[in-house]
Specification:
With about 210 residues, the chain is an all-alpha fold. The protein has nine helices and no strands.
């Protein structure tokens, strides 16, 4: 049971992290404009944010659904922020994007905050727990502290592992110089806008 829960945590986190989303793009952008170490900081913080969201989904599943119902502006507001962020990346002049150095802790906190401000992730994990329940696998505090801890560890490692892969890929692209950076900013901007539009569309037709 212990190994099963650990494996389920890793696999579910990998599946959830593979699609190119806001956190993945932040890891890529930070790696390109700063360095691989800063990109990894974003990934490590995002892993913590993912675990927090899973814990919320696990402990407060009904409350989470009620919360979304009581704050109808929350998800549209986040969608608008994604669209605004995408426009910002598309309009920003390339000459203003220079590689940064220093010891700022901003990348770490940006990864944590961006991971936490991602309601679809909670919905993804609520669906995951529902699917497990259909297979007669219940995840709660009754399975034991060690088993539950390894489940969360699997989620963390799966999430960070995928994001590290994105960081390594971005570090490789950075060798192409400023042209690669401009391409990445266009990708980031376009993807952010698409994320916002998809989220808004889903809410309108839900």
């Amino acid at each position: 049971m212990i190994l099963l829960m650990f494996s389920l945590g890793v696999m579910a986190a990998v599946v959830g992290a593979l699609p190119l989303g806001a956190v993945n793009l932040m890891v890529m952008q930070t790696t390109m404009t700063r360095n691989l170490n800063k990109g990894l900081q974003v990934a490590l913080a995002a892993g913590i944010g993912e675990v927090v969201l899973v814990g919320i989904a696990l402990l407060f599943s009904m409350e989470v659904l009620i919360f979304f119902d009581q704050l109808p502006w929350l998800q549209p507001g986040i969608a608008i922020l994604f669209i605004a962020g995408g426009i910002f990346f598309l309009l920003k002049k390339a000459k203003q994007w220079k590689r940064k150095t220093g010891t700022s802790a901003v990348p770490y906190f940006s990864g944590l905050i961006l991971a936490l401000l991602n309601p679809p992730v909670i919905l993804y994990w609520l669906l995951f727990f529902a699917l497990l329940h259909d297979q007669m696998i219940v995840v709660d505090n009754q399975i034991g502290v060690l088993t539950l801890s390894l489940f969360f560890l699997g989620i963390y490692l799966g999430k960070v592992g995928v994001l590290y892969g994105y960081a390594r890929w971005s570090d490789h692209l950075k060798r192409d110089g400023d042209s690669a950076q401009r391409k990445l900013f266009r990708i980031v901007g376009t993807a952010f806008i698409l994320l916002g539009v998809v989220q808004m569309t889903r809410l309108l037709y839900a």
